[in-house]
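User: quick one - fold this with NAI bound?
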Amino acid sequence: MPKALLLENIHPDAAQSLRDHGFEVVTAKGALSEDELIDALDGVDIVGVRSKTSVTRRVLEARPTLSAVGCFCIGTNQVDLDFAGRQGIAVFNAPYSNTRSVVELVICDIICLMRRIPAHTHHLKHGLWDKSASGSHEVRGKTLGIIGYGNIGSQLSVLAEALGMRVLFYDLEEKLAMGNARRCATLNELLEQSDAVTLHVDGRKSNTGFFGEDQFAHMKQDAIFINASRGFVADLDALKQHLDSGHLSGAAVDVFPVEPKKNGDPFITSLADEDNMILTPHIGGSTLEAQKSIGHFVSQRLEDYWEKGSTSLSVNLPQINLGPNRGVTRIAHLHANLPGVLARVNHVLGEENINIAAQSLGTEGELGYVVTDVSQKPSSKTLEALRAIEGTIRMRVIS
Ligand code: NAI
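Assistant: Sure. Structure tokens for the protein plus NAI:
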């Protein structure tokens, strides 16, 4: 029976789904240290982690028979992806499962900031009745500037338009504009026209400090600012200055340059005393719906990989989307991306007069992956010969 270990309180639907697919599943609430993880992975075929368990090179070296790692979250930088690939260990994540949750939080931020809800709440909590329309606006007809028009940015675009907002976006890459959204050729063009500016860029290193004094200075008088992307992308000292000077009318920040490691840890931010400010502890994607959806999405990728050899949506292996076996035996062969490996695989099979019923090849960077459905069960001698082909990283027989 294959064995799966699921750490960090992954949604129970994932464990159930893996059990339904024949896995013995062990679950644990917390994260594990490197040494604890090495111990716990003894005899484990598939491990599921979230963001707090690091699957380092040392862990992967110590457990070379591990087959796959499921990151039940969006990010994958807790796993040494390159080394995992070179060891033949597939890594999967859930890139879209909490997109909607982030979008809904941002819509909430925009409406609340435009109605000055944080400020009104603060006044009432301190015993001050201040009923006034001053500084409060409908979002209808206002311009939303979306920076980073990927999964989240583009879905936000659709929902914002449904609320009657005019949408502008800026992205480094050519992107299909949703609905009536309009692409800006430069960041400043977007900043100078937007009543609300929201960041949805990815976490690449070059985005460190991407939104600083210069960018805030280009924003419209009384505009609002939102960051629910990555903490290191925006300069919060510059934001504070633009709030204090009265240039910007409010802000919502969900992600911070340094975030506490665990719940209950203290957290201090210089933005705490701002009037029209929403501060949330990186909960953009944290909804029960998103957790459930992540549980389903990643467990299905792991099951498909285990049962069919399918690497569709893997973040570190060449991607092949496979249907059911069209022969008797399926052989998944991961190798260094060198010329002639496919020919050698077929030559070895031909030596035993084995007919190929179907074959798929994918290459990506230094890796090649060929999956062959053959019409008869290969002998152990043939399987050994396939394993012995130069450049072979891992070979798996899937019946
Ligand atoms: P994505 O990868 O689909 O989209 C990112 C987009 O930003 C891409 O289109 C890319 O070309 C663009 N981009 C990158 N750098 C840029 C720059 N300097 N200027 C303009 N465009 C740039 O990512 P997705 O899934 O939409 O996520 C966006 C961000 O949201 C990520 O940073 C992610 O980590 C964060 N996130 C935050 C969550 C939260 O709980 N607050 C939950 C989920 C994601």
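One thing worth noting: Residues 92 and 301 are 7 Å apart (CA to CA).
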